């Protein structure tokens, strides 16, 4: 994407800014270092990732814009505003205000924090030992992988595979039209909802692994044309199953510890 398009994006900030406030300037990564390796600076502007850009011990007081054809790598970085991503990003020990994804974005974040929400569309999203303080609402074409991650808001995943291990969801966990879904050793304080699968799902079960998961709300399985395997799920609410037509149906019901009632196809 050209500089004119980047300027247009930043000008949108100016429209929303208070009267008299000027938007920060845009700095290209290539202006900071010819080889794209930027270390130990406090940048009082937006950052445009126009080349492969490696940030270490950097503060960015604006927004980071990363586009197709350039990769952003960050370690021990703090972004006061957010990350607008259309390319590839690999974040480690990084704090950003929010993340907005557009194809062909791919995001990998490890030991990092998003103070707001993660939203948009991407090929791959991988969150490891991460925290999202807002919502997660992303459509992937390949996979969304959440490992040892906490999402404080609601979580909605669409599109590709959804693979969850050792993660905590303080709101709902909602899978809509994902490929195969795997939830293993998860804690969900709201509802766990799976609907319109395009492949099978495993909830609380993965081969011989210990995968017990706890759901403080209800588990809702709705309109899935593929099979769903259940393992040890501790469900404080209800188990609601309607419109599921997979060849094996819903298996593993005897493994479920249910403190509410079973409704529909999951009734004993």
Automatic annotation (TrEMBL):
Q: Which UniProt keywords apply?
A: Signal
> Where would one find the signal peptide in this protein?
1-21
Q: Does the keyword Signal apply?
A: yes
Protein name as it appears in the record: Polymer-forming cytoskeletal protein
The organism is: Cellulomonas cellasea DSM 20118
């Amino acid at each position: 994407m050209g500089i004119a398009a980047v300027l247009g994006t930043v000008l949108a900030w100016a429209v929303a800014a208070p009267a008299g406030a000027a938007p920060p300037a845009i700095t290209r990564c290539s202006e900071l270092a010819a080889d794209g390796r930027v270390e130990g600076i406090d940048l009082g502007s937006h950052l445009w990732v126009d080349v492969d850009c490696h940030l270490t011990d950097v503060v960015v007081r604006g927004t980071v814009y990363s586009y197709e054809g350039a990769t952003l790598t960050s370690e021990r970085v703090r972004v006061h505003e957010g990350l607008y991503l259309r390319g590839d990003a690999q974040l480690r020990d990084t704090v950003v205000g929010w993340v907005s994804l557009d194809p062909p974005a791919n995001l990998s974040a490890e030991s990092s924090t998003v103070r707001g929400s993660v939203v948009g569309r991407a090929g791959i999203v991988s969150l490891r030992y991460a925290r999202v303080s807002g919502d997660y609402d992303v459509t992937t074409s390949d996979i969304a992988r959440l490992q040892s991650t906490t999402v404080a808001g609601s979580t909605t995943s669409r599109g590709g595979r959804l693979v969850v291990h050792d993660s905590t969801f303080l709101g709902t966990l909602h899978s809509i039209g994902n490929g195969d879904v795997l939830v293993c050793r998860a804690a969900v304080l709201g509802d766990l909802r799976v609907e319109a699968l395009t492949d099978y799902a495993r909830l609380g079960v993965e081969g011989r692994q210990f995968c017990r998961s706890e759901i403080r709300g209800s588990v809702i399985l709705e309109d899935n044309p593929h099979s769903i395997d259940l393992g040890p799920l501790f469900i404080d609410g209800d188990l609601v199953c309607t419109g599921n037509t997979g060849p094996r149906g819903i298996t593993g019901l005897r493994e479920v510890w249910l403190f509410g009632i079973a409704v529909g196809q999951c009734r004993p």
